[in-house]
Amino acid sequence: MKKKLTFAAALLAASVLGGVANAKTLVYCSEASPANFDPGTTTGGNDFDASSRTVYSRLVEFKHGGTEIEPGLADKWDISDDGLVYTFHLHPGVKFQTTDYFKPTRDLNADDVVFSFDRQFNKENPWNGEKYLPNLTWDYYTGMDMPKYVAKWEKVDDLTVKLTLTEPNAPMLANLGMDFASIVSKEYAEQLEKSGKMADFSTKPIGTGPFQFVDYQLDSVIRYAAHPDYFKGKEKIDDLVFAITPDATARIQKVLAGECDIAPYPNPADIGTIKANQDVTLMDQAGLNIGYMSYNTTIPPLDKPEVRHALNQAIDREALIKSLFQDAGATPADNLIPPTMWSWDKSVKFDSYDPEAAKKVLADAGLKEIQLWASDRVRPYNPNFQRAAELIQADWAKVGVKAEIVSYEWTKYREEGKKKERPGAFQIGWTGDNGDPDNFFATLFACSAIGVSNYSSWCDKDFEDLIQKAKKTSDQGERTKLYEQAQVVFQKQAPAFLMAHSQVYAVVRKNVSGFMMDPLGIHRFDGVDKAE
Amino acid sequence: MLRYLLHKIVLVLPTLIGITICAFAFVRLLPGDPILAMAGEHGVSPARYEELKEQFGYNLPIWQQYAHYVRDAATGNFGVSISSKRPVIEDFMTLFPATIELSFFALIFAMVLGIPAGIVAAVKRGSWFDQSLMGTALVGYSMPIFWWGLLLIIFFSGYLGWTPVSGRIGLQFFFKPITGFMTVDTLLYGKLDAFRSALSHLVLPAVVLGTIPLAVIARQTRSAMLEVLGEDYVRTARAKGLSSARVIGVHALRNALIPVVTTIGLQVGTLLAGAILTETIFAWPGIGKWMVDSIFKRDYVVVQSGLLLIALIVMAVNLIVDVLYAVINPRIRAA
Fold first, then answer.
1. Confidence check: pLDDT of A6 > 70
2. Residue A17, C-beta contacts closer than 8 angstroms, at least 6 positions apart
3. Smallest Cβ distance to A218: which of B174, B176, B285?
4. pLDDT per residue over B194-225, tens digit each?
5. Residue % of chain B over a pLDDT of 90
6. Distance, in angstroms, between B173 CA and closest chain A CA?
7. Are B265 and B320 in contact (CB under 8 A)?
8. Which residue has the higher pLDDT, A328 or A360?
9. Would you say A39 and A166 are in contact if contact means Cβ atoms under 8 Å apart?
10. Are A167 and A84 spatial neighbours (Cβ–Cβ below 8 Å)?
């Protein structure tokens, strides 16, 4: 009997859910299955595409296709003169999604905002630990140093939230646009807590975003429908489907065959085929990343900027990039930050290839041998450390410097490489988190990052003053000027060889409009439309 | 018979222990500290590192970690995925039907083509058919699955447009799984167009996954058939004036099939191993793809328990085959 009933229920569900044949459906061939649908608990770009960027909204948002901050659930915000207190004014009448598993009785309010953050650090909050999900680590909340900077979150009234910091921190606003800062429903959480189904919070998401969750068939298909009461207006697409397709070649064949409309990350080898096809467009952008090589600036003769410049000049960077990235291409880096990021200084140029000049300086400095570090891992900003090391080794040999290649497995590599006394040149790179320049400059080259992620052990007073001041200034115009100056200092001091920002690609069918590449590496479907 | 069964089960135990050790050691021999791997480029502070180590139980001595693992596995607790936070066994049960369905069709494909081809090759031994079949089987046996799958996709789905590129069913079909077998569920719902879509999605992955078993079965059938055709009773049957079809189809084939059945049973291991690659290429939501995803995510809990579960299944199937073999062939029991 029970079996019969289940079958009848399933049949009913099928007939109800099946009747969407005439709706406008957009199919996105995603690269991997999401770990779950709670963006506070996950770390992968594919997790965020499937949860935070579809189902949820945040207090502030990144401008579509850029790294600037614009209003989200907060219409506006005030920052106190000392930079310690942020007051957010919420958009009135924001509706949470109504689904077959949750019917909201109230609009979004300050309680939801406070709860969304409180659950990520407050050990007393039942949603912080094992009671909700096993092995919770809240990686991004801790990774972005939120515990260090946030003193408290407070509800002022239903539509006003106050955030107090422990010290001024301008990048905080960008942090609040990140995926982990998605705003969840406190009412839904309470309902699940009462019914004892807390884990559902991560598998059946409820948010205020452009699309609402319909169904997930494990490792196969995720279905969403447009959120009819979305506070920025209902989307033009009725149904959004993620067809999970891990193999890059199969993914591209699916777009070419019309089985999906958009697919990310094609294989470099397929780029020619894609370009030749009339039905699809290949979109590209310099990714929010940098591949570079840190010199230990504390060990002579690498402590002299002219020696570091000479090593840079000795490398045929164009040939190196071509050999490493091949058809996929990469943008040669002039600055530590990529050109898609605000404050990028176009007047700064990286050292040009000049082996003759380099030879003389290096001979005068007496540099004959150097360690050159390479790991085994493929990274977005460097597809082959080993090959890069061999090419650089050959270039340096031409100017009389013998490089010894030092290799370790990736984890050990970074462990050894970050040590303050590590000698030589260390290949590494970075992929940005929140689109704020601080996330590059301070994370990678602040004095306090020595021994952690400042692989050059470089502590320059001018540079440090500029980036610390920029961190504490909330005016973006002012911050831009400070970071521009920091880039000039960086170029002069040359603590590293800057290689390239790798390109990021997506393949889109020609009848799709409104899709944009995002420097943050996310894939957004708000504002996307499709002609039949 | 019971004694035979018990004997077989006792023999399985050391293998089982070996597998737990291998699965446990394997994930720990993989390069990269699991916690640092989770932390990515950001790294973790030493204090947080210790905290996480304790949370995941990596601070305990290695033998103790192993003891916990065996104890948990023995009580049916296969742990919770580090990335999805769901119980491993839950995801395994959801995904396993897809792998069974694919393997089943791959095996059908391999048997339907392999057995007749093997018989014909044996009967026409030394003919051009026999020679080219054995040549083809050798190629099939050494086929790199990944390359073969992509080649078929590009040709049949991309160039000819005959088959869908990947997935399990057309995206327009959407229903809650009942059995988890797409071909069965579509029929239970009475949706013929959905059933056709599910079948069309099975064609390429089943062919790719069935290629190696096809080669093995064809070769095995041929050699078993050749052996049997030389036996006295076949000669007697011929001498009695039975038709050639009856001699081959009844007298020879029935006896030749005994080793072939064993071979087919042993293909389960090959199928599950092949599923890892096939499922990844064809976006087939089964346990093979799940294992690959988990290895890339350094989700050690899933890899370790997934390996154990898969090994258990292969062992169980082999045990069943052994027993079936004994049922078909009484001589084995006595031995």
1. no
2. A214, A215, B174, B175
3. B285
4. 999 999 999 999 999 999 999 999 999 999 99
5. 36
6. 7
7. yes
8. A360
9. no
10. yes
**B231 burial class (0-12, 13-18, 19+ CB within 10 angstroms)?**
middle
- Same domain membership, residue B234 and residue B97: yes
Residue B162: is its pLDDT beyond 70?
yes
Question: Is the CB of A36 less than 8 angstroms away from the CB of B84?
Answer: yes
Q: What is the pLDDT of residues A47-67, one digit of tens each?
A: 999 999 999 999 999 998 888
The residue of A25, A254, A408 whose CB has the most chain B CBs within 10 angstroms, and thus the best one to mutate to test that interface, is A254
**DSSP state, residue A380:** T
Examine residue B173 and state whether it is found in any structural domain, yes or no. yes
Considering the domain architecture, whether residues B19 and B148 belong to the same structural domain is answered as no
Same domain, B114 and B263: yes
Main-chain dihedrals φ then ψ at residue A500, nearest 5 degrees: -160, 160
Within a domain: B304: no
- Identity of residue A74: A
- Whether B111 has a pLDDT exceeding 90, the answer reads yes
Question: Considering only CA atoms, which of B212, B219, B217 is closest in space to residue B141?
Answer: B212
Residue ending a domain, choose from B75, B110, B125: B75
* Shortest Cα–Cα distance, A92 to chain B (Å): 34
Q: Is the pTM of this model over 0.80?
A: yes
| CA A400 – CA B316 distance, rounded (Å) | 65
Tell me, what's the ipTM? 0.83
Can you give the residue range of the structural domain that contains B60?
Answer: 1-75
Same structural domain for residues B18 and B167?
Answer: no
Distance CA A492, CA A419 (A): 24
User: How far, in Å, CA of A296 to CA of A455, rounded?
Assistant: 7
A173-177, A303-307, B9-13, B144-148, range with the lowest pLDDT: B9-13
Give the tokens for residue A358.
């380099």
Percentages of chain B per state (helix, strand, coil), in multiples of 5: 80, 0, 20
Q: By three-state DSSP, how is residue B84 classified? A: coil
Going along chain A from its start, the domains and CATH numbers come out as: 22-55+209-286+504-531 (3.40.190.10), 57-188 (3.90.76.10), 289-501 (3.10.105.10)
- Provide the 3-class DSSP secondary structure of residue A163: strand
